[in-house]
Each structure stands twice: as structure tokens, then as C-alpha cells.
Amino acid sequence: MRVVVLTGAGIxxxxxxxxxxxxxxxxxxxxxxxxxxxxxxxxxxxxVQRFYDERRAVLGRVRxxxxxxxxxxxxxxxxxxxFLVTQNIxxxxxxxxxxxxxHMHGRLTAAWCxxxxxxxxxxxxxxxxxxxxxxxxxxxxxxxxWFGEIPYGMDEIHEALWDADLFVSIGTSGVVYPAAAFVKYxxxxxxxxxxxxxxxxxxxxxFRQSRTGPATELVPAWVDDLLSTRR
Length: 231
Ligand code: APR
Hints:
The chain is an alpha/beta fold. It has two domains: about 140 residues, Rossmann fold; about 80 residues, 2-Layer Sandwich (SIR2/SIRT2 'Small Domain'), CATH 3.30.1600.10. About 35% of the residues lie in helices and about 20% in strands. The chain contains nine helices and nine strands. The strands form two sheets. A six-stranded parallel sheet has the order 3-2-1-7-8-9, sandwiched between helices. Strand 2, helix 6 and strand 3 form a beta-alpha-beta unit. Helix 5 runs parallel beside helix 9. The chain binds adenosine-5-diphosphoribose. Adenosine-5-diphosphoribose (APR) binds next to helix 1. Adenosine-5-diphosphoribose binds next to helix 1.
């Protein structure tokens, strides 16, 4: 059975990472959505770098939770039959043990030089304009996909959805495209569909089944069920 899993901010909420659209949605008075654009970066690069620097720093203080761990266990069992795509820019899937994570919105732990186009693993602040290890210019930005930019790996994602027997969406509000359309694509491809979310998302009606509750409970239970039916 080929399974595509899409995750969003809700899977990392119980690790202590704020979601984008739940309560207390402001960062120092700014709507996070307005910091995550090329226009915001052009207008105030230090502000935008600081927003992502803070998020990168927080990674050192949080840990993967039972939902990330369950998906790592699923990868161990399914191997290449699991395609895990995340909208999250945190590294909690990897730290839980997942080895093949498709970060469609990029990663906090990578920096991109907009001049030489090199990408580098990254752990420190970018606000002080460190030099690119490739070309030496001070032209690094977080390797994340902003509103108005094209998500990474869309061809591969569409291929995986086309081949999927089951599409599962976890902890995402279903309002940001193109990820919000994956369920429709999966249905058109003939896959079964399941949503696991704290509350029904905007797209809940598109799923054959929608389960509500915290990811740390729903995801391990679903993985257990799936693996027991395979044995
Ligand atoms: N367990 C399961 N779901 C949860 C939990 C939890 N503990 N806590 C919150 N949720 C759900 C919320 O109900 C909501 O539907 O997670 C969802 C989070 O939604 P968003 O904050 O909109 O995050 P996401 O869908 O990942 O956002 C998509 O928007 O800002 C951009 O690029 C950013 O990748 C992000 C994209």
C-alpha cells in the first residue's frame, strides 16, 4: 500500500511550536503571514531575518513528539511506500528518525545564497549578514518558501499523489495552496483519504474520513491500526 502523508503546523504544536492560524497569532505585533513574503524581506530584511532566527533558535529547545515518532516508525515499516511531505520548516520529523522528508516550504536549518544559488546547512542567526560559505557575499536568506514563491518538489509530490492508495493530512488548516488541493488530487487519483486534525479543517468535507483530536493521540493510533492490518 502506498501512502502519502501531508503534515502541517498542528503536528508540531504539542512540541511547543506555535501554529500560524490558531489563537495569539501575532509576532511582535506583526501577522506572521506578512513577514513571510519577498516584499517584506525587501522592505525590512533585518525584521524578516529576526523572525526566522527566533524560530531557528527555538528548535534547540523543543523535541519531537509522539506523532513525529509514529511517522518515523511508519517509514521504517513502509520504506519507499511512504511519501512524507511537510509544510513545516522545523526539523522535528528528522529528529524523530524520518529519513525521507519532503519539505515543500523549505527548512529553517538551511540558508540559500540568492547570488551564487548555493544552499548550506545552517544553525546560526542570519540577521548579522554572515558571508555565504560558497561565494563570500553577504547574501544569505533562510531557505524557506514565502507566499508568492513556488513550493519545492511539486513534480515529485504530484507523482506520489497520483500513485497513492491512501492520502493522510495531519495538523493543517487546509487554507494554503497548493497543499490544500492535495486531497482533491488524491481523490481524482482514486486514493482513500483521511484527515487527522484538532478540529475539522476548511477542507474536511473533501476527505472520506476526518478524525478530530490532538496529533499525539490520533497519529500513533492510526499508525498502529495501519500496521496491524498489513500483518
Ligand atoms: N493536533 C492536531 N492538529 C492541531 C493541533 C494538535 N495538537 N494543534 C493545532 N492543530 C491544527 C489546527 O486546528 C489547524 O487546523 O493544526 C492546524 C494548523 O493550521 P495552520 O496554523 O494554518 O498551519 P498550516 O496549515 O501548517 O499552515 C500552512 O501556511 O503560513 C503558512 O507556510 C506556512 O506552512 C505554513 C502554511
